[in-house]
Amino acid sequence: MKVCLSALFLALAVPALAQEPVAAPAPVAIPSPALPRVVLDTSAGRIVIELETAKAPISATNFLKYVDQKKLDGVEFYRAVKAADHFGFVQFGANGEPKRLLPPIAHEPTTQTGLHHTDGEVSLARLAPGTGRSEFTISVGDQTRSLDAGQGQPADNLGYAAFGHVVEGMDVIVGIMDAPVSPTATQHGAFQGQVPVAPVKVLTARRVRP
Predict the structure, then answer these.
(1) What is the mean pLDDT of residues 17-29?
(2) How many CB atoms lie within 10 A of CB 140?
(3) pLDDT at position 10, please?
(4) If phi over 0 gives left and psi between -120 and 50 gives alpha, with beta otherwise, what is residue 149?
(5) How many CB atoms lie within 10 A of CB 194?
(6) Is the peptide bond before 210 cis (omega within 30 degrees of 0)?
(7) Whole-angstrom distance, CA of residue 204 vs CA of residue 89
(8) What whole-number distance in Å separates Cα of residue 132 and Cα of residue 102?
(9) Burial of 154 (0-12, 13-18, 19+ CB in 10 A)
């Protein structure tokens, strides 16, 4: 009788064990591909920019074209806007020099990309949407109220196109913004009071990855 009871117990127990949940294998984390980075070696020091090629592909790719074709070698930071301590922006690029210009690109507003003009953000300046080419700004402090889409600047409320951020060298950017500006000089008749007395030059602009 003991043998029969043991056999019956095993017959009942085995199905119960088979029904115990099996732990699912832990998901394998797939690393995101590294975003491209560009080094600006300037007369004031090194600046490293990481580009948001996934979120702002048109604007980021445009910047990389200028880099890869060496069209930013020798350009200057020709504008510095300081509204307060650690608050403003600087601007650099081809400054209308014909031999450096590539075709204008479609505008990518921040409402589309999800990027914002926070401290160190790099963006493409423009006039009307779709006219942006080769003039790039770097925010110092939070400039979302001035430069993001929907914030009233420029007047069409589409803002500038943010596409990357400074990951090294913000001290260089702040130094450019803090440097003396001429009270009378202009660039193509504009930016009076915002033109540096001694503009910082981009010696080379090169990809470092990928």
Answers:
(1) 62
(2) 27
(3) 37
(4) beta
(5) 20
(6) yes
(7) 21
(8) 10
(9) middle
Report whether pLDDT(193) > 60: yes
Helix (H) / strand (E) containing 182: strand 181-182
Say if CB 119 and CB 142 are below 8 A apart. Answer: yes
**CA 118/CA 140 separation, integer angstroms:** 8
Identify the helix (H) or strand (E) that includes residue 168: strand 161-168
Indicate the length of the chain as a whole number.
Answer: 210
Query: Is it the case that residue 101 has pLDDT exceeding 80?
Result: yes
Query: What is the DSSP secondary structure assignment for residue 135, as one 8-state letter?
Result: E
Token pair recorded at residue 173: 């950017």
* pLDDT score, position 141: 98
The answer to whether residues 133 and 104 touch, using CB atoms and an 8 Å cutoff, is yes
From residue 195, how far is each of 26, 93, 124, 160, 184 by CA, in Å? 57, 14, 19, 20, 8
Query: By percentage, how much of the chain surpasses pLDDT 70?
Result: 84
Q: Is the pLDDT score of 2 beyond 60?
A: no
Query: Residue 95 class from Cβ within 10 Å (0-12 exposed, 13-18 middle, 19+ buried)?
Result: middle
User: Quick one: pLDDT at residue 197?
Assistant: 98
Q: CB under 8 Å to 138, separation ≥6 — which residues?
A: 89, 90, 91, 92, 120, 121, 122, 123, 166, 173
